[in-house]
Design goal:
The structure holds two protein chains of two kinds. By secondary structure, chain A is α+β, with helices and mostly antiparallel strands. Chain A is about 40% helix and about 10% strand. Chain A has seven helices and five strands, in the order H-H-E-H-H-H-E-E-H-E-E-H. Chain A has a four-stranded antiparallel sheet, covered by helices on one side. The radius of gyration of chain A is 28 Å and the shape is elongated. The two termini of chain A are about 40 Å apart. Chain B starts with 8 loop residues before the first helix and ends in a 10-residue tail after the last strand. A four-stranded antiparallel sheet of chain B has the order 2-3-5-4, with helices on one face. Chain B has a single domain, classed as Muramoyl-pentapeptide Carboxypeptidase, domain 2. The chains are: A alpha+beta, B alpha+beta. At the A-B interface, strand 1, helix 3, helix 4 and helix 5 of A face strand 1, helix 2, helix 3 and helix 4 of B. Strand 1 of chain A pairs antiparallel with strand 1 of chain B, so a sheet runs across the interface. Chain B: This is Trafficking protein particle complex subunit BET3. Chain B: Keywords: Endoplasmic reticulum, ER-Golgi transport, Golgi apparatus, Transport. Chain B: It is found in: Endoplasmic reticulum; Golgi apparatus, cis-Golgi network. Chain B: It holds the Pfam family TRAPP. Chain B: Belongs to the TRAPP small subunits family. BET3 subfamily.
């Protein structure tokens, strides 16, 4: 087999160029010719002027992408959020077929938020630490700490690992913000509106390439009636990756 | 000065309102709802507006109770006073903004609220489709109309509220219009007789 079939990017094609070559478009650097290959002739300038273009000039400097994301974020009343969330639960309940479906819908709503929040928090943070979490434990600590703090204004309470099942972890919040003003009626059994928060975590983990399923469970404790456990179950494939990388 | 000055929205915001430090959760949550509604209604934006309005109405009916409890506000004597109360106190303690009241009609029954900033629409951009239908049909912050309608109805004011301009659509400002239809009589709520 000859070497000709192997394509080395650019280097190979450079070696095939000769002095007499000129590019088809009329542009392009030919190292054999040197700077003169890029010289602007009447012919090339004509091509340049008559090229079809797409305008990339920003029409306004006031778009959402131009805003400073490091600016201090304004505060908002907790009641406004609670009213909105309460109405969301109400609307989802009317549309859902049962408790599981309701939780699934809340999860979906949260998921979209998690995806966006991860990006936002990371962009803000990267300027400080310029690092990315690549181990399961690290990403969990990030979610439990910095991520939680930027969304809810405090870090979550505990972070635990299941002793029996390898890929299960738990983040525990004693007073979850979203269900602060929600009391679940008896006939709704074990509905937990924190499914919304679980969705946020799931969205963030998935976007960070740590595929997981997250569910919320209400586990009250003496003096902490709202205590919620977020059960994080990582995908098996993650462990293969972790083993390959770190062992 | 009218007595609205007695209830300073700023002071109440500082001392009397439980806050979350980050309005982004609120913003993103609302955004998530609107986009879900667009999917649910198959991009029929008129229906999305209606649904947002209904949700707002439900919120407004309950929100007024907290407003009255926190502010201890007395009945407004004129509709002008009501307008001041809504912008200086209502919007301040719930959304931490103070819209401008302008564009009164001659009869004093219709006015505009101009929102200089809108926490609901931070980081929001309406997707540009080939027909731009979303920019024509969707009122992204329609929930506010519902809230105002619901809350005012609970204090015996029958009003119509609608958006006329929204920066998201490319307008120069975000403007809401309120029209007073009539004062409702005190009635026993349905189901309590």
């Amino acid at each position: 087999m000859s070497n000709d079939n192997i394509i080395y990017p650019s280097v190979h094609s450079f070696s095939n160029l000769s002095l007499s070559d000129s590019s088809r478009t009329g542009f392009g650097y030919n190292p054999y010719k040197g700077p003169s290959s890029n010289a602007i002739t009447p012919e090339t300038s004509n091509i340049l002027i008559n090229k079809k273009t797409v305008s990339l000039t920003p029409t306004s400097f006031d778009s959402i992408y131009d805003r400073n994301i490091l600016k201090k974020v304004p505060e908002i009343s907790l009641s406004s959020f609670s009213f909105l969330f309460c109405e969301i639960v109400n609307w989802t309940r009317n549309n859902s077929k049962g408790i599981q479906d309701l939780e699934q819908r809340l999860n979906t709503l949260g998921y979209q938020i998690g995806q966006r929040f991860l990006e936002l928090v990371k962009t803000r943070e990267r300027i400080k630490y310029s690092k990315r979490e690549i181990k399961i434990l690290e990403i969990l600590q990030f979610i439990h700490g910095a991520f939680w703090k930027s969304i809810f204004g405090k870090t979550a309470n505990e972070l635990e690992k299941s002793q029996d099942i390898e890929n299960e972890y738990m983040i525990i919040d004693d007073i979850p913000l979203v269900s602060k003003f929600i009391s679940v009626p008896k006939d709704y059994g074990n509905l937990s509106c924190s499914a919304f928060t679980a969705g946020i975590i799931e969205g963030a983990l998935d976007s960070a390439c740590f595929p997981a399923t997250v569910t919320a469970h209400s586990v009250p404790k003496e003096g902490l009636p709202l205590r919620t456990v977020f059960l994080i179950k990582f995908d098996e494939s993650l462990y293969t990756r972790e083993n390959l990388r770190f062992n | 000065m009218s007595k609205t000055t007695r209830y300073s929205g700023d002071e109440m915001w500082k001392n009397n309102v439980e806050k979350i430090q980050n309005s982004e959760l609120f913003t993103l949550t609302y955004g998530s709802v609107v986009s879900q509604l667009c999917r649910d209604f198959n991009n029929n934006y008129q229906e999305v507006n209606q649904q947002l309005d209904r949700m707002g109405y439900n919120i407004g009916m309950r929100l007024i109770e907290e407003f009255l409890a926190k502010t201890g506000a007395q009945r407004c004597q004129t509709f002008k006073e009501t307008a001041e109360m809504i912008s200086k106190v209502g919007f301040k303690i719930f959304l931490n903004i103070q819209p401008t009241v302008t564009n009164w009609t001659q009869d004093g029954k219709t006015f505009s609220l101009v929102l200089n900033e809108n926490p609901l629409a931070d980081f929001v951009e309406l997707p540009m489709g080939p027909d731009n239908r979303i920019c024509r049909d969707l009122w992204y912050s329609q929930v506010l109309c519902g809230v105002l309608r619901g809350a005012l109805q609970m204090v015996q004011l029958d009003v119509d509220v609608w958006f006329v301009k929204d920066v998201l659509r490319g307008d120069d400002q975000t403007e809401l219009r309120l029209r007073l239809n009539k004062f409702l009589k005190d009635e026993v709520p349905a189901g309590e007789d």
